[in-house]
Amino acid sequence: MKLSRMLTALVLCLGYAGAAQATTILYRNDDTIGTDYLGLAVNGGGYTVTSTTGSTSGFTLSKFDIVVYANQNQSVTGGDIAQLDAYIAAGGHVILTNGQSPTPSAATRI
Fold first, then answer.
1. Which of 13, 39, 56, 71 shows the smallest number of beta carbons within 10 Å?
2. C-alpha R_g of the chain
């Protein structure tokens, strides 16, 4: 059920980004436990995808239309949360899933 809602959110965000323009996505997944269906959806949609398993600190998030932050096995760092919060505040679009205890912030409320 949770995966279904997340994939629905992904489709809505990607549709919002517009089919007429190239959509760029930063896909961050710290660990794959089982099949990475979210990664398959992101990478199979014909979008320009940059993938990472680490922190988002090495990326300029404003260069991406959407950031998909899948956190399955590690703690979400305060630096990543601050960067995602700033990106959202500037009008960025984030899909965040956190398998760990939620950290209260704008990024986890989206």
1. 39
2. 13
